[in-house]
Specification:
This protein has 446 residues and is of the alpha+beta class. It is built from 16 helices and 20 strands. An eight-stranded antiparallel beta sheet has the order 13-12-9-10-11-14-19-17, sandwiched between helices. α5 runs antiparallel to α6 and α13 packs antiparallel against α14. It is globular and about 60 Å long. Bound molecules: adenosine-5'-diphosphate (ADP). Adenosine-5'-diphosphate (ADP) binds next to β6, β8, β12 and β13.
Length: 446
């Protein structure tokens, strides 16, 4: 049965994105919000809003019982978590299940499995996906870690089992570094995720980040191809684009990710992340069990409304598309217009005295920003996602240059100057990009 009213448990651009999908489907949009967001566009444009003011602004979106209470009081059939906040919280999903409210995303069990990088690696290895050499169990002793590193070879990377956002990761080049790197990763993991289990994996040199978009209905899965997301700062993406692979490689890895999703009974949108080394070999990193910031790139090149499709499978529909229905056309690029300085990427909250975002053929801008918007310092610094589409990569890049030139953001520091320089940089233009791109191009940061 179709949803009548859905609660958006998120803020910013993704709250607007979800609201638009709901409106496309004739579903009412409810929203829960904190004090900082009471005048925000998604709150003003929602059908009904639930004020949830807390001393700690993050709790407005993270407090499970408040969100459940909002969904009940506003008589919502379902909750859309967006990304971040409660999107990957199995406890939250269970609470909604208890209340008979649908969570738009996978089941609590699948979230628990995929939220543990060690378990997820094992599950995907069993489904036939290639993974980097590493520990299949948590590691707490430097001696055991050294032994493993001797077997798989340096450098290695220590990662949190419950990890996310690149937090805590430590690259280890030689045995003597293990003791302190292990402690550091464990303590960061403990404070960020309340779980200090870490594991060791071969560090993939010269790697590119390539990820696959998947949609599944609990039985079958299809894929929408790949996105290339190697331009990162602190393991966080800045520029995403696609397509990137040959048709043959896309079909090969695409079949594997579908098998992986089906093997765990996945339902909803998912992103399978990989590193690809200089030989072109793929290594599974993790599954993000939710809509992703950069889903927009895939929407531009496939023409499918991914957020709507995710809601439809949550309503209990079977996959409305077959793999053969998915076609790719042209090339799309997304620049994340964060309110940050372009040297150290320090967030720059404040009031937008003025802003103007471009539009026109082949341009899409997803943003909750408007002149007068007070960008809070307590949330993510993503202000807008600027995308361009072109018949090929060169025309998408050319269009991005003029789209960036047309964009006006005044009142906060932002990444437009950095993106503009990237669009002119030779290695970027040649597609000669690895996850070290920003480190290797310090001249872009000033
Ligand atoms: P998180 O969930 O914290 O974002 P991921 O496992 O998805 O962590 O990795 C995020 C980024 O960290 C990757 O895109 C890559 O830049 C780097 N990284 C992670 N694992 C490795 C590895 N084995 N070798 C090289 N880089 C890695």
């Amino acid at each position: 049965m179709g949803f009548k009213r859905v609660l958006i448990a998120n803020r910013g651009e993704i709250a607007l994105r979800i609201m638009r999908a709901l409106r496309d489907m004739g579903i009412e949009a409810a929203i829960i919000h904190g004090r900082e967001d009471r005048l925000s566009l998604p709150v003003r444009m929602s059908d009904v809003a639930y004020a949830n003011y807390k001393d700690n602004p993050l709790d407005s979106y993270l407090d499970i019982e408040s969100v459940v209470a909002a969904a009940k009081e506003l008589e919502c059939d379902a909750v859309h978590p967006g990304y971040g906040f409660l999107a990957e919280n199995a406890k939250f999903v269970k609470r909604l299940e208890e209340e008979g409210i649908t969570f738009i995303g996978p089941s609590a069990d699948v979230i628990t499995l995929l939220g543990d990088k060690i378990e997820a690696r094992a599950a995907m290895e069993a489904a036939g996906l290639p993974t980097a050499k590493g520990s299949s169990e948590p590691i707490s002793s430097a001696d055991v870690a050294r032994q493993l590193a001797d077997e798989i070879g340096y450098p290695v990377i220590i990662k949190a089992a419950a990890g996310g956002g690149g937090i805590g990761m430590q690259i280890v080049e030689e045995a003597s570094e293990f003791e302190s790197a292990l402690k550091l990763c464990q303590s960061r993991a403990k404070s960020a995720f309340g779980d200090d289990r870490v594991f060791v994996e071969k560090y993939i040199m010269g790697a590119q980040h390539v990820e696959f978009q998947v949609l599944a209905d609990g039985k079958n899965a299809i894929h929408f191809g790949e996105r290339f997301c190697s331009i990162q700062r602190r393991h966080q993406k800045l520029v995403e684009e696609g397509p990137w692979l040959t048709d043959e490689k896309r079909a090969e890895i695409g079949a594997l990710v579908c098998a992986g999703a089906e093997s765990v009974g996945y339902k909803g949108l998912a992103t399978f992340e990989f590193l690809r080394d200089a030989n072109g070999d793929f290594y599974f990193l993790e599954v993000n069990p939710r809509v992703q910031v950069e889903h927009t790139v895939t929407e531009l090149i496939t023409g499918h409304n991914l957020v709507e499709l995710g809601i439809r499978v949550a309503q209990g529909e079977d996959l409305p598309l077959a793999q053969e229905d998915i076609k790719w056309r042209g090339h799309a690029i997304q620049c994340r217009l964060n309110a940050e300085d372009t040297v150290n990427f320090v967030p720059s909250p404040g009031r937008l005295w003025d802003c103007h975002f471009p539009s026109g053929f082949g341009i899409r801008c997803d943003t909750h920003a408007h002149p007068g918007y007070e960008m809070p310092g307590c949330f993510d610094s993503l202000l807008a996602k600027l995308l361009t589409w072109g018949e090929d990569r060169e025309s998408a890049v050319r269009r991005m240059r003029s789209a960036l030139d047309e964009t006006i953001i005044e009142g906060v520091e932002h990444l437009i100057p950095l993106h503009r320089r990237i669009m002119d940089e030779e290695d970027f233009i040649n597609g000669d990009i690895t996850i070290k791109y920003i480190d290797e191009h310090p001249e872009l940061l000033f």
